[in-house]
Structures are given as C-alpha cells and as structure tokens.
C-alpha cells in the first residue's frame, strides 16, 4: 500500500503529483484533481477499449511518459461500472501496475459495487477489488438506498482521522465522561450533515445479504430480458454491445432507416434522432430514457434498470412506446 | 471584486496563495485550506478580541508579513456568528482592507446569517455584508430548515459554472429539445445529491419574510430572557459576556464555590466541573447543554436556542435542572 511513500518518507518526495483514470470514468475524478489543487492537466485520461474498459498497457505507457518528465505518478482510479457503458476496468492488471510503481489503487465502484452482493455476477467484474487501497461504493445507486448514501472505504485503519482531523476542541471534546467512539465528526471533511449511512443499515437489516443478492440478480435478469427483446426486434432496435451490468446501450431505428444497412452514416442519422425522440418522451410524459454520445459514437440511448419494482411488462412498454413515439422520425 | 486578478491576468500572478480567517472561525475554513491544496500553514489565524471578533489591525499586520515573504494574500474569511461565542467580525473594516489589497472577501454567515431577516438585529451585526464577494449561509442552522440546507452566494454571475464545469456531455446534454436552465448539475462540485434548497423554498412560502423575522426575534427574546435569569441568579451562574446572538456562554457554580471571589483559579475549578455535569445530564437524560474551552478560558457552558418552539418555561427548567444535578459538585 503506497510503499514508496512510507519507505522514503514524505520529505524525499518532490515533483508534480499525477493521477490516472480511464477516459470513461466519472467526471468527478477529474473534478477532484481540480479541487484538491493537482489541476486537471495532472489527471491523465487513459484510453479505453471498445467495450469501455481501461487498457492496462496504455496506463503503463502514460505512467512512464510522466515519469520521464520528472513527475510523480501516485494514484490510479480503476472504474468498476462506468457511467455510460457499465464497463469494468480489469482490476488485477491495474493492481499489478500500481504495485510495480508504488501507486495508490482506488476502485470507483460507485455504480458497479452493488454486484459484489451477487455470487453470480461479482466475478469476473470485481475480481481483485480486495487489492484496492480505497473503494468508492454508492448504495444509493444500484442497491436502491434513498438519495443520498455514498460511502468510501480504506484499507489503512485510521487514515480518515490522520488526514482530516482538525482537532476543533470546541466541537469534538475529548474529555467527555461517556463513550465517544461514535463521535465521528472529526474524521470527515464536512461538518453538520445527515447520518446517511443509517438508511443502509436499516435496509440491510430488512433485506439481509440474501435479499440484496436477489435484488441484484433480479436487476440483471430484467436487463437480460431487455437485451433479448431488443435482439428479437432487430429491425427496430440496434444493440450496441452486450452489457456487463444494467446499462443497455442501443439505437432506436425509425421506419425510414430499417432497410438501410448499418454504417457510420446510419449511426449519425440515428444519433441525430435521439434528442427528438427524448423530447417526445418528455412531452408525452410516459418515458425518461437517457441518451448521450461517447468517444466512438454519436448519441445513443442508454437504459438503466435499478429498481427491482420494474417488471418485464415495463420493459415491453418501454420498447413499444419508443416505437410508437419514434417510428415516423 | 478581486481586481488585481482581472487587471493583471492570471499569467502574471505567481507565489504562494495565502488566506486569512479569525482564530474563532469554524474549523472548516482551515480544512478547506488543506483540501484545496493551499495547506493549513497558508491559512493564517488572525487574533480576535475578548468578545471573539477579528482584530482588523492584526489582519493587516499579518497580510503585510506574508507580502514581505513574497506570498500572495488573496482571501479573507470574515465570520458572522462564531461557533462558540456567536461573535460578528467587523465586516466594513475588513472589507476596507480587502479593497486596499485586492483580496477576496468571504463572509461566513453560516450561523449568524439568519439575523439578516430581522430588522431589529441585523444591524450592526451584519452591516457591510453587501460588500462581500461570497457569502455562506446555512438555513439549517438558525432558520430551522431540516438538516441539511447549506447555501453559498457569489456576487459574480456565472462563477460556479466557470469554476466547476467539467462538461460531462454524457450527463449534461446541451442538445435537449426542452428548457435546460434548471439542469444545474454542472455548476456544483458534487453530482447526484438531494435538492436541499427545496426545503427552504417550501419553508419560506409557508412563513414568509414576516414569519422568519418573528422567528429570529423570538429566538433573541428567549436568549435575552435566559441572560436575565442568569443575572438574577448570579450566585449560581456566571455570565461570561453579553451575547450578540443566541449563544449564551456561562459557568454553573456549585454550592462550595458560591462564596469564593471570581478569579482565574475559580475559572479553572468551574471548567473542570463542566464534563462532570454534562455526563450527569446525559445519564439523567434531561438536558444536552454543550461545553468547550476557548483560547482565553477553560471549559464553559454554551447554550443555544435555535428552535422557536422553546419557551420561557424550558429556560427556567434548564437552569433549575443544572442546579439540581450540579449543586453538590
């Protein structure tokens, strides 16, 4: 865990700190680089492959490039469940590189971490996560905790206190004559805030490990149902890739383009229609399916099922409704 | 507003940025210096006077001291309502210094800002706040909005967007065919979070300006009642200073110390009793009155009335109960 830091001592470390994350990672990673004073130029975007996974050889190449400039690569963010494609970076390969160069391994499992609760789906997606120095995991996403419930986990005990403690003795008195172990205020960056983790505790008490596993498996089952229905209607829908989690990426195909062979030109046409169809959904008030471009494609739809209350009938309705609203586009 | 920055252009500014705040300010100011990469050594604590207000001549002296070291003083945090004593830094005096040296004036009115809603109490406490470049104001404190509702206000329009925008086009699409003015996500540091300001909107609709004014005046009336009762029982309670807002700072005096003249030695004795009396309150389950030391005094009690549902009878009960639980200490 960050061995160079401890062996060499902080006084010997000099030079520009640089962090690395995939070009598919959440924008908050880059935002962190801005806020904490590194600067966005020192948050290096590592190319990803066609399925949205970080390419480990590219990571190593970019680390070496910064090293030759005298910089100090210190941190890699490995995304488990990217926002758009739901892709999982290869944790073990990235962990090997972090170990080789003495870098901190952070796993951003904010979106995909819920699948840890499913024996069926946790591997190979999250294999190696136990090697992380820190992990982000948002129960308010896949696990359905109410907004907001966002957690961070560290391998090193006491790290939050040693980093964040400001010892405000007018607020966090150490001379109280009763148990102060749960006075956690001085560990965290923010002060007076919700006890957001309590919601997760209640939920876990109610559902248990088994309940959460069923929840995760059900979401994946619904996703697989949607993929099946899209493939069955391949004249009307174009599946962009087999999903790794609940993100289903696809284009809707209106009548006039159904007999046109798929090509970059057709992708451009399909992309242009996304905002128009989305506006019709909003005006009609029946659907809210998001769309976005990525580095390789123009706009495409991305459907997410994150509530176990969704049914197969809802999936059927979604696809039929998109066709009803969009077939003349 | 921060004129040097604009006139000179960013490329000409070099050197260590330094911020200033009073030694009575909230610990989160120092924490900010740590998080955003300035380092806590570059958050200079300006001495305050006996009543807890920043001393403007000390501020100017410390600014000059850093300038002679080649540093760039750029930011002053002026506290309106300190955490412990409820003191208000002299905004106009501090604003004059900020203007003189081309520095950003931030007013931390998180605690005291509610008094802006009272014509009776806003002056002189918050006089000059209109000169601030930015203001923090937490409706979840004095105004009774439910945790959490914390706001920040800037004089310069568009600043949040120009500072925080990461242009994540996969989340904040600009090609939507409907009104996106309220898609505010790209302005803020955090991503998926509560719409906490909605609570304030509802509350303001229900209470109106007049309702909030009555709320503020009532809190101050209750505070004045408490001060009066403490003075009437000066054998049992020692008022440390006349409060500027709802913070009432005092010592409780047990029987054995009632005939001892007040002195630094008696203060030490009274301070030692605070945790013991607090523990008795917690064990009895009847009161939760906080205590803390400050730079000039050992532990003392600080009572806060921030709910308009408190009554004069509650204040009487509080003082009687402290005496019941503590008179033998």
Description of the structure:
Chains A, B: It holds the Pfam family Pyridoxal_deC. Chains A, B: One of its GO terms (cellular component) is cytoplasm. Chains A, B: One of its GO terms (biological process) is gamma-aminobutyric acid biosynthetic process. The structure is a homodimer of 329-residue chains. The first copy, chain A, has 329 residues and is α/β, with parallel strands linked by helices. Chain A has 2 domains: 5-200, Type I PLP-dependent aspartate aminotransferase-like (Major domain) (Aspartate Aminotransferase, domain 2); 208-326, Aspartate Aminotransferase, domain 1 (Alpha-Beta Complex). The first copy, chain A, is built from 8 helices and 10 strands. In chain A, the strands form 2 sheets. Chain A has a 6-stranded mixed β-sheet with strand order 2-1-3-4-5-6, sandwiched between helices. In chain A, a hairpin with a 7-residue loop joins strand 9 and strand 10 (300-304). In chain A, helix 6 packs across helix 8 (312-326).
Characteristic key phrases:
homodimer, 329 residues, alpha/beta, Aspartate Aminotransferase, domain 1, 2 domains, pyridoxal phosphate binding (chains A, B)
Q: What is the subunit organization of this protein?
A: homodimer
Round the mean pLDDT of chain A to the nearest integer and report it: 92
CATH level-1 class of the largest domain in chain A? Alpha Beta
**What is the CATH superfamily of the largest domain in chain A?**
Type I PLP-dependent aspartate aminotransferase-like (Major domain)
Cα separation of the termini of chain A? 55 Å
Largest sheet descriptor of chain A? 6 strands, mixed
- Rg measurement of chain A, Å: 23 Å
Uncertain ranges of chain A: 1-6
Q: Count the strands of chain A?
A: 10
**The CATH topology of the largest domain in chain A is what?**
Aspartate Aminotransferase, domain 2
Global shape of chain A: globular
Which pair of chains has the greatest number of interface residues, and how are they split between the two chains?
A-B, 46 and 46 residues
Give the number of helices of chain A: 8
Helicity of chain A, in percent?
25-40%
Residues in β-strands, percent of chain A: 5-15%
């Amino acid at each position: 865990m960050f061995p160079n830091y401890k062996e060499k001592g902080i006084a010997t470390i000099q030079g520009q700190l640089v962090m690395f994350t995939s070009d598919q990672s959440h924008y908050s990673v880059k935002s962190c680089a801005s806020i904490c004073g590194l600067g966005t130029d020192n948050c290096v975007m590592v190319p990803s492959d066609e399925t949205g996974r970080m390419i480990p050889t590219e990571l190593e190449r970019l680390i070496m490039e910064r090293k030759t400039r005298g910089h100090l690569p210190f941190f890699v963010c490995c995304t488990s469940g990217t926002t758009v494609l739901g892709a999982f970076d290869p944790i073990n390969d990235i962990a090997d590189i972090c170990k080789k160069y003495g870098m901190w391994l952070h796993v951003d499992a904010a979106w995909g971490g819920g699948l840890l609760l499913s024996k069926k789906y946790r591997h190979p997606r999250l294999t190696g996560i136990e090697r992380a120095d820190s992990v982000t995991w948002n129960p308010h996403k896949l696990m359905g905790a109410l907004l907001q419930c966002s957690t961070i986990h560290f391998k090193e005990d006491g790290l939050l206190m040693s980093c964040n403690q400001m010892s405000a003795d007018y607020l966090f008195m150490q001379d109280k004559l009763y148990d102060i172990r749960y006075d956690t205020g001085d560990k965290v960056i923010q002060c007076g805030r919700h006890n957001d983790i309590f919601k997760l505790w209640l939920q876990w008490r109610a559902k248990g490990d088994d309940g959460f596993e069923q929840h995760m498996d059900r979401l994946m089952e619904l996703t697989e149902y949607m993929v099946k229905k899209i493939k069955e209607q391949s004249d009307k829908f174009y599946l962009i890739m087999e999903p790794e989690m609940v993100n289903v990426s696809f284009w809707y195909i209106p009548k006039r383009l159904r007999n046109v062979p798929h090509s970059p030109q057709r992708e451009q046409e399909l992309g242009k229609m996304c905002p128009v169809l989305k506006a019709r959904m909003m005006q009609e008030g029946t659907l809210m399916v998001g769309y976005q471009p990525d580095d390789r494609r123009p706009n495409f739809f991305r459907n997410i099922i994150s509530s176990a209350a969704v049914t197969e009938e809802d999936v059927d309705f979604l696809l039929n409704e998109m066709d009803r609203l969009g077939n003349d586009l």
